[in-house]
Design brief:
Elements (H helix, E strand, L loop, with lengths): L5 H23 L4 H8 L5 H23 L3 H21 L7 H14 L2 H15 L1
Length: 131
């Protein structure tokens, strides 16, 4: 069985660390008046924004852990949720230009998660789990 590609390892840790930091900081900023003001400008209700945000962070955390364990479904889960989130943000965000960094980051992550080395790693892990 091959070793985990460095790119998958980095992406997995990146998702885990950023999800944990974001969960804590988002929770701590829930009562921030500036945050409330910015969220109120969205076409989506504030409680729904929080629900989607926290669900997305939990999905990122689970995906990061599963990527490091070689679970092929984690790629699909993370990318699917991210695309869904970007589409929702495209229709509801009052400041569309702020979506550009997220789109670029998603493109880079998708590129590295679907490179031949990553595909081989996830395929071998899948075959080992089926045996």
């Amino acid at each position: 069985m091959s070793n985990r590609p460095t790119s998958v390892n980095i992406i997995g840790w990146f998702l885990i660390v950023t999800a944990l930091i974001s969960l804590v900081s988002s929770y701590l900023n829930m009562d921030n008046p500036i945050t409330k003001e910015l969220m109120a400008k969205s076409a989506m209700s504030v409680p729904l924004q929080y629900a989607v945000m926290f669900l997305g962070l939990v999905i990122a955390l689970i995906s990061g852990i599963a990527l490091r364990r070689g679970q092929k479904w984690a790629r699909t889960l993370y990318l699917g949720w991210s695309v869904f989130g970007l589409v929702v943000a495209l229709f509801t965000s009052p400041v569309k230009i702020m979506l550009v960094p997220g789109v670029l980051m998603l493109a880079v992550i998708a590129y590295f998660l679907f490179r031949p080395q990553a595909n081989a790693y996830f395929s071998q892990r899948l075959a080992a789990n089926d045996a």
